[in-house]
Amino acid sequence: MPAENITFSSALAAGERASAPAKSLSFLEGVAMIVGTNIGAGVLSIAYASSKAGFLPLLFWLVLVGCLTTVTMLYVAEATLRTRAHLQLSGLAKRYVGGFGSWLMFASVCVNSIGALTAYMTGSGKLLQSLLGISPAIGSLLFFIPAAGVLYLGLKAIGRGEKFISIGMVVMLSVLVIATLLKDTTQMGRLLEGDWRFMVPVFNVVVFCFSAQYIVPEMARGFADKPEQLPKAIIVGMATTFVLLAAVPLSVIALSGLDNISDVATISWGQALGQWAFFSANIFALCAMLTSYWGLGGSFLTNIFDKFRLGNDELPLRRFAVLLVVVLPPFVLAYSGFVSFVNALYFAGVFSGVVLSVMPMLILRGARQHGDMMPRWQCNWITHPLLQASIVLLYAASAVYAIASLLGYLPAGW
């Protein structure tokens, strides 16, 4: 029996999901999946989340968290390249860490995805209300139809959608930033305002902004025919993400000041620039939410298939049933009154940040000991124990702060 069939059979015996044949992604589609997933509700909320701390503390966290998240994503990338079966994060955790690790990772995926998709439902409703004058619920429904429709079509449709919309977002954002810099009311001195004592709460929203860890296994599935491009796509995608995440709050704060930022930043940004910019900024925001919805929603869907061994995720009726589990609860939560836009991102970032600071390290360690093959690319020096310990301590301290601020012992950030 060929080695591939032996590996496939042993994977099934171990309870791993037998993935459908991979549909190849281009390098640009892979980069766009990273950028599109990251540039979602987070880019719209970090200006408001830093309205007390200011731009410089935000920039500090964008640099630090961006670098550390890239490191943990590369851990996951190496683990996927050592694994012949196409497993999602919860599946990798089960194979290399054990049952408890698998459930912990699956819980992280659930919390982060539901928090994100709830925020997108809320934010899209507000944006379409401001653009079209319709009710927020109707606006969310209009957003929901294309968001869920592409999610149903699968990985290749998501990759193509991310590519075209991400290119459009970069163009729109470039025009808006240039217009902001040329506006006579823009004051760069506003970027120096703020209070560093409020910098810690900003961390957790920034963690959410770099939320593309969840899609690395799905990208690996699309790069199965050219695995050496996976780490390159991650690094280029994360560098592009940093530039875009820094540009939006820089422009909004310099133009409007810290006291005049709405929780969905593009609303106040567009109002300050004029009518054309109001529409452009909010169309950009809708695109950002849409691409991130596809990335995180797609990861959540395939993690459900993986965790509960539901088989081929491209069978139409089965995929539709799981899709309902993914997309309906966030829509209901968005209008339950229990969760605000920024808080949904904040607490999703807290929980998922802690889990994703530890689990990729354990998954990589297990993959190096029990993986199927030696990959052509490895992490090398970024697996140094001192760096790993620093990552864990930083995310753990942030979680402690979040709990203390929720209980009223420490100040909140906005």
From TrEMBL:
InterPro entries named among the record's database cross-references: Amino_acid_transport_2
Subcellular location: Cell inner membrane
Membrane topology: Multi-pass membrane protein
Major subcellular site: membrane
Record keywords: Cell inner membrane, Cell membrane, Membrane, Transmembrane, Transmembrane helix, Transport
TM region(s), chain numbering: 27-49, 55-76, 96-121, 127-152, 164-182, 202-221, 233-256, 276-296, 317-338, 344-364, 385-410
Superkingdom of the source species: Bacteria
The keyword Chloroplast belongs to this UniProt entry's keyword annotation: no
Descriptive protein name: Amino acid permease
Organism field: Serratia rhizosphaerae
